Amino acid sequence: MRGVVMHAPGDVRVEDRPDPRIEHPGDAIIKVSAACVCGSDLWPYRGVEKLDGATPMGHEYVGIVQEVGSEVTTLKPGQFVVGSFWASDNTCEICRAGYQSGCVHRVLMGTVGTQAQYARIPLADGTLVATPEVPPADLIPGYLAASDVLGTGWFAAVAAEAGPGKTVAVVGDGAVGLLAVLAARQLGAERIIAMSRHEPRQQLAREFGATDIVTERGDEGIARIKDLTGGLGAHSVVEAVGTQESMMQAINSARHGGHVGFVGVTHDVSLPGLELFGALVHLHGGPAPVRRFLPELMQLIGDRTIDPGRVFDLDLPLDRAAEGYQAMDERRAIKTLLRP
Amino acid sequence: MRGVVMHAPGDVRVEDRPDPRIEHPGDAIIKVSAACVCGSDLWPYRGVEKLDGATPMGHEYVGIVQEVGSEVTTLKPGQFVVGSFWASDNTCEICRAGYQSGCVHRVLMGTVGTQAQYARIPLADGTLVATPEVPPADLIPGYLAASDVLGTGWFAAVAAEAGPGKTVAVVGDGAVGLLAVLAARQLGAERIIAMSRHEPRQQLAREFGATDIVTERGDEGIARIKDLTGGLGAHSVVEAVGTQESMMQAINSARHGGHVGFVGVTHDVSLPGLELFGALVHLHGGPAPVRRFLPELMQLIGDRTIDPGRVFDLDLPLDRAAEGYQAMDERRAIKTLLRP
Asked: Where does the secretion signal sit in this chain (chains A, B) (predicted)?
């Protein structure tokens, strides 16, 4: 089969890779309907994260079940399924508490590489959620978004306790930040402040439910949030970038007693203890337990209540994956969808 | 009047200071029944925190109202009152959300110096809570504990979401850590693991409700907590020290999705972003909003349900304050009560 392999920073190729096969009786093989390039794929692309040799890429996916292992009981060939970037058993104590990304048996899908024609999904019963029927083509991008960016933005908004009566600030205008705006809206937030200086992204943020746009960053951004909230700061802040500046901007944009949900992968970030102590906020984040939210999100997508697939502004055949990486790296695209 | 003044690290004196007087119409003057030395008073005593010249000390207090300003409406002379280390109006939006230590009009009582015969309490209506009657002498230490260490330990346990069915680990065996054990017990925790290597403190922890004692620290301490929790980590962890090691011990002792409540003042602490991201915990802490809990805690003390005053294992007249500081610095005393 064809699949994306990163050989070095900036060097992404689509190559022949071995067809995946059932390795454990809990596995399923899916034919990938659509995959995409994640903001986190840009870390190794930019050389920030070290590559351990040539690496198959991709951890977001939707597809059709082709084959299931002997222990798989809830899935059958022909079903359309969505999974998340952590495979999880969905039965352990951590999963049952809603933290499937911390499952005691979790498997990182990045080790599988879903930017390909086929993919092996470990722990298939726990990981994959099927739709009642194979959905129409125009819903594929939405379901694909649920696999990571929507689920992650949603988790960030939940971690920030976005809800009725709340003012929510969102730091980061990538796909996750934009979908955190959508999530905050769905969760009933009263006011949603998107922090963005990119006009097309501001526009999408507004369409997703942002009531205010703040273009300032860092201390100026914090001051603007304070201005907009009677000097107090936001009740809820989503951090969807992962830099030192964005984390401190998020923490200091929240009011005392407020909630910060962070989902940007925090490379080279170091939180100063006294500043965190003085902020008196709630901080929660990490790899999103997308599986927790999949049934609800898939329902909202299926009945067309939300349209998270709009974050895909570049749609390419798999063989042109390198262009998709480049466009995201140069911020010409918010998110690239790849069709095998 | 007589009052404690710190002149330099290790140099604590009891001196004549001016009698406090009403400065703002919302002030009250109290005759201090008892004050005490806080673990945080040891930071400047040890030279870790810089002193800005000779400094009146003390921010914990109970006493009898002597005089009230013209705008004070809820208090009258003769009442026995407890306050916290942050004076707060208890009416602003932050106070109403339960974060009085982040009150928009807050005043740090450390600037007043309550290790003295009298003290001026700003924002008296918001800050002070009166008992129905002047309590018997044996309850004074308990009420004094409510002023900071009990309220802080309680907040830490609440921030860590201690409650029924939960396993709670407490890092730190000072007065705050020990009272977090008591709080976790009152909040209904199923299992409470106190981390302490000091026999008398282990004993008090057990009396306050600890079910297990762990003497290991750092990575070994984390491994012990994992052993005791089926490899998962505790649901709730209280951090009541404030060092790099204790913070990381707390964060890594919690399970994925678990809650860490931190109240140790985090000097020289720096939280590595990727480790925090990977931990996937809730982190909440800072200066405790003790005022939120005072009515409930004073009730529990008044009806003798809890006896937090047991953390005071050294009881000295105010004039011997220097001995009290020294004993705590050398860890010969858990906490020193001072009687003016």
From this structure: none
Query: Quick check: A94 and B231 CB within 8 A?
Result: no
Query: Quick check: do A2-148+289-339 and A150-285 share a fold?
Result: no
Quote helix, strand, coil % in chain B, to nearest 5: 35, 25, 35
Q: For residue A139, count other CB atoms closer than 10 A to its CB.
A: 19
> Backbone phi, then psi, for A235, in 5-degree steps?
-65, -40
Q: Could you give the ipTM of this predicted complex?
A: 0.96
Q: Which among B102, B232, B266 is the nearest to A94, CB-wise?
A: B232
How far, CA to CA in Å, does A37 sit from each of A6, A11, A251?
12, 14, 28
The 8-class DSSP code of residue A208 comes to H
**Rounded distance, CA A76 to CA B121, Å?**
71
For every residue of B101-129, DSSP letters joined together read: GG-TT-EEGGGT--SBSEEEETTHHHH-E
Q: How far apart are CA A42 and CA A10, in angstroms?
A: 9
User: Which residue from B minimizes the CA distance to A98?
Assistant: B257
Residue whose C-alpha is closest to residue A80's, from A33, A141, A112: A33
Residue B32: CB atoms within 10 Å = 24
Contact at CB, A101 and B278, closer than 8 angstroms: no
* Distance between CA atoms of residues B314 and B307, nearest Å: 16
Please state, in angstroms and rounded to a whole number, the distance separating the CA atoms of residues A165 and B291: 25
Dist CA A307 CA A143 (whole Å): 9
Q: What SS3 class is residue A124?
A: helix
Q: Which fold has domain A2-148+289-339?
A: Quinone Oxidoreductase; Chain A, domain 1 (3.90.180)
Chain B residue with Cα closest to A263: B277
Which one of B257, B274, B284 has the shortest CB-CB distance to A99?
B257
CA B178 to each of CA B45, B154, B157, B164, B291: distance values in angstroms, whole numbers, following the listed order: 22, 10, 11, 19, 20
Per-residue pLDDT tens digits of chain A, which is 340 residues long: 999 999 999 999 999 999 999 999 999 999 999 999 998 899 999 998 899 899 999 999 999 999 999 999 999 999 999 999 999 999 999 999 999 999 999 999 877 899 999 999 999 999 999 999 999 999 999 999 999 999 999 999 999 999 999 999 999 999 999 999 999 999 999 999 999 999 999 999 999 999 999 999 999 999 999 999 999 999 999 999 999 999 999 999 999 999 999 999 888 899 999 999 999 999 999 999 999 999 999 999 999 999 999 999 999 999 999 999 999 999 999 999 999 9
For residues B108 and B59, the answer to whether their CB atoms sit within 8 Å is yes
Backbone angles phi, psi at B289, to 5 degrees: -80, 70
- Helices and strands counted in chain A (H then E): 12, 19
- Kindly report the number of other CB atoms within 10 A of residue A133's CB atom: 9
- The answer as to CATH 3.40.50.720 being correct for domain B151-285 is yes
Question: What residues of chain A have any CB closer than 8 angstroms to a CB in chain B?
Answer: 93-94, 97-99, 101-102, 104, 230-232, 242, 244, 247, 255-257, 262, 265-274, 276-287, 289
Q: Which residues of B touch A93 (CB under 8 A)?
A: 230, 232
In CATH, what class is A150-285?
A: alpha beta
Domains of chain B, by residue range, sit at: 2-148+289-339, 151-285
A-to-B residue pairs, Cβ atoms closer than 8 angstroms: 119
Query: What DSSP letter does each residue of A243-282 carry, written as one string?
Result: SHHHHHHHHHHEEEEEEEEE-S--TT-EEEHHHHHHHT-E
Alpha helices in chain B (DSSP H): 42-45, 93-96, 124-127, 140-147, 149-159, 175-186, 199-208, 218-228, 244-253, 273-279, 290-302, 321-329
